[in-house]
Write a sequence for this structure.
């Protein structure tokens, strides 16, 4: 089953699965003076949702509550972790994450509290604060097979560029925050702080470093941590016991400055949710699309890299403040091994999505019937749309026509990741055509990315006379059949037009596979544009 939106909420809940298969979508109300821990149940795996239930009236301590995370332990009891701002106003006047470190520097606090049910979820243990300081968010909690509960988080330090620290820290900047975790060996009755402070350097001064860690127990008993950074990829750390951790190092996973979601399926496979996005100012890469992949070898290799969610407001300019986009995935595994997750930031953007991981294994995809442009990213562009095929008025085709001025005319299409593969499409240049660029790459960047050509894996240019830069010629006003065959092991991509080989282009950057087609109009002024139809791809993993 392909991804489908099951519900939309104003808050981003955490979904837990009870022993009887009931889902609880847990959140905290923000608007009332008396705050409550609430849940929306579902008895049918998220297809329908019942009335709101109040799980617990939260203590009237100094400060407001928010930033929840939840877990069902091996005994079926519910654990909920909440942040409390200790009266410093973080949850009274919340800001976007770009302001989080600045606000924290103004002596604001976000302590971690633990709430737990008892007696088969018939009552609640008296809650307690288990860590004091400032943490921006909770993104993960797991119980290991031996019963140990791990709650990773990041915390504010005194580190600044002026006072960077000693040793290697003095040679670069590791940001204002570090990552660590608290753990419990007695079902949450007592908590202990890991001795490890995990730091990741930043690409510029003033950033926050390695934050919002997510953990997963591996098959060999080790624990794997993925850490959000501002470096264009996730960093990783490993632990033999969940307590002491290795120094973070770069992982192979490209990512914007965004946290991940990870779950293990019943058969042992791992499903990863993350923003494989680069080159956009917000979140150092953007959060316009969310990707999913599945691993059969405990995270060594990944299958899929497919878009499972898109920002529903991506066609509008970003808001002037606050968080936005489709990010912060919180997944859970349903009894049938489907994955359900919440994602999204900002009003109108929060959704619950469900999909079958087998969908990630598809090796073929097509866009032959252009009923709409939902499968394409075209936001931030002009001159891109659907029109009738000049030869068949009943058929819709993609039209890309560069407009005068600064607006680009580009379209972006995601497909399953392939080390090698074959992509076919029909191409037709109009009279007055001024050029086109066809690119293949391994990551998402916004359609209007001016550096997509520089960062593409393979690229072909077609000039205004229909000449392809690797050889070959198209005729204006008629459909031509394009076939691009790439092979990363051979480091090349061959192009054929109407069955005739037209040369090849070399791999420009080392990548883990190809999963995006980008089409760009490259005219400087008025342009009749070009048409594209019958796009189809077959990949080999």
């Amino acid at each position: 089953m392909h991804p489908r939106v099951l519900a939309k909420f104003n808050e981003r809940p955490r979904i837990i699965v009870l022993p009887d298969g009931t889902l609880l979508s847990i959140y905290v109300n923000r608007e009332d003076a008396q705050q409550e821990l609430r849940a929306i149940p579902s008895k049918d795996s998220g297809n329908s949702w019942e009335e709101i239930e109040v799980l617990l009236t939260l203590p009237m301590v100094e400060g407001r509550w928010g930033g929840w995370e939840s877990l069902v332990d091996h005994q079926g009891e519910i654990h909920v972790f909440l942040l409390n701002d200790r009266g410093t106003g973080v949850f009274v006047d919340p800001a976007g994450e770009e302001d989080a470190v600045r606000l924290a520097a103004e002596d604001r606090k976000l302590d971690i509290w633990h709430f737990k049910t008892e007696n088969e979820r018939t009552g609640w243990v008296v809650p307690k604060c288990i860590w004091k300081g400032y943490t921006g968010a909770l993104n993960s909690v797991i119980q290991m097979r031996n019963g140990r509960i791990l709650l990773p988080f990041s915390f504010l330090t005194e580190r600044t560029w002026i006072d960077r620290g000693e040793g290697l820290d003095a040679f670069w900047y590791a940001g204002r925050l570090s990552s660590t975790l608290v753990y419990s060996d007695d079902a949450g009755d007592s908590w202990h702080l890991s001795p490890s402070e995990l730091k990741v350097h930043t690409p510029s001064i003033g950033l926050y470093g390695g934050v919002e860690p997510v953990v997963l127990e591996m098959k060999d008993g080790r624990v794997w941590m993925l850490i959000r950074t501002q470096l264009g990829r996730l960093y990783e750390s490993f632990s033999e016991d969940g307590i002491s951790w290795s120094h973070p190092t770069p992982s192979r996973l490209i990512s914007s400055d965004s946290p991940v979601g990870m779950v293990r399926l019943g058969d042992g496979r791992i499903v990863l949710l993350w923003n494989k996005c680069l080159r956009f100012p917000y979140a150092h890469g953007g959060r316009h699309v969310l990707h999913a992949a599945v691993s059969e070898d405990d995270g060594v290799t990944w299958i899929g890299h497919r878009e499972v969610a898109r920002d529903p407001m991506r066609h509008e300019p970003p808001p002037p403040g606050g968080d936005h986009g489709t990010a912060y995935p919180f997944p859970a595994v349903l009894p049938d091994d489907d994955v359900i997750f919440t994602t999204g930031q900002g009003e109108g953007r929060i959704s619950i999505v469900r999909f079958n991981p087998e969908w990630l294994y598809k090796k073929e995809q097509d866009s032959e019937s252009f009923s709409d442009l939902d499968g394409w990213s075209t936001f931030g562009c002009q001159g891109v749309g659907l029109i009738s095929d000049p030869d068949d008025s009943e058929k819709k085709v993609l039209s890309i026509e560069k407009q005068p001025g600064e607006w680009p005319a580009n379209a972006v299409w995601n497909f399953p990741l392939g080390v090698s593969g074959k992509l076919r499409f029909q191409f037709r240049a109009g009279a007055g055509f001024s050029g086109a660029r066809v690119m293949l790459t391994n990551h998402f960047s916004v359609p209007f990315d001016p550096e997509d050509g520089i960062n593409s894996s393979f690229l072909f240019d077609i000039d205004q006379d229909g000449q392809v830069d690797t050889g070959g010629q198209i005729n204006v006003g008629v459909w031509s059949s394009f076939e691009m065959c790439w092979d990363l092991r051979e480091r090349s991509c061959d192009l054929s037009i109407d069955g005739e080989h037209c040369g090849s282009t070399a791999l420009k950057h080392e990548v883990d596979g190809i999963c995006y087609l980008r089409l760009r109009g490259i005219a400087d002024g008025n342009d009749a544009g070009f048409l594209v139809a019958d796009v189809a791809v077959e990949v080999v993993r």
In short: The chain has a mean pLDDT of 93. The chain is about 0% helix and 45% strand. The two ends are 21 Å apart (CA to CA). The helical segments are 100-105, 452-455.
